[in-house]
Amino acid sequence: VAARPAGLEVDYDDPMWQSYVWVAMLDPVELATGTRLTELAATERRGRETWWARAEAIAGYEPRCSCCPLLWGEVSDRLEFGDEGVRPRGSYPDGWLVGLDRRTGVVVSSEPIGGDGTVLGFTNEIHAVDIPIDAALFSPRPGPGQPRAPRRRRRGRRPR
């Protein structure tokens, strides 16, 4: 992402699931600044063109959230905890092998390189892009003062 579109009302943090890693995976703008990208490659992964890089966070790295960055390590820990929260050398990965789906820009793989082996990465698969989706699956959000859709009760629970 070289520049964000101007004038659009977009909430880039919207689809959070468990942590901001999910949000950063879908919109990896944090890889654009304060990173060193080396060992660049393009391959096909699961039938999709994927761009790969060894990524390292350096001064100026700005993760969406320093508690759950794409490039966890000394730089993000220093942002999150200050100097007193930095772990001993060797605990952190030396870098990350990051794969981006070329067509969507979504991070499809992030695996630690080196370190003490206790850090986990992630991988995901894109099943489809730009397929027709039934509009009935989406409903407009109610505005202020408008009634919301009724909530469904869970089985076996009484309403309060």
Q: Can you give keywords for this protein?
A:
2 helices, mainly beta, five-stranded antiparallel β-sheet
Fold blueprint:
Layout: H1 20-26, E1 35-45, E2 48-57, H2 74-81, E3 95-101, E4 107-113, E5 122-123
Please characterize this protein's 3D structure.
The protein is mostly beta strands and 160 residues long. It is built from two helices and five strands; from the N terminus they run H-E-E-H-E-E-E. Strands 1-2-3-4-5 form a five-stranded antiparallel sheet. A hairpin with a 2-residue loop joins strand 1 and strand 2. The longest helix is centred in the middle third of the chain and has 8 residues, at 74-81. The chain is globular. The mean pLDDT is 82.
Question: Can you describe this structure in just a few lines?
Answer:
The chain is mostly beta strands and 160 residues long. The chain has helices at 20-26, 74-81, and strands spanning 35-45, 48-57, 95-101, 107-113, 122-123.
Count of DSSP strands: 5
Q: What percent of the residues sit in helical stretches (DSSP H or I)?
A: under 10%
Which spans have pLDDT < 50 for at least 5 consecutive residues? Answer: none
Averaging pLDDT over every residue, what do you get?
82
What letter string, H or E per element, gives the SSE order? HEEHEEE
Main sheet record: 5 strands, antiparallel
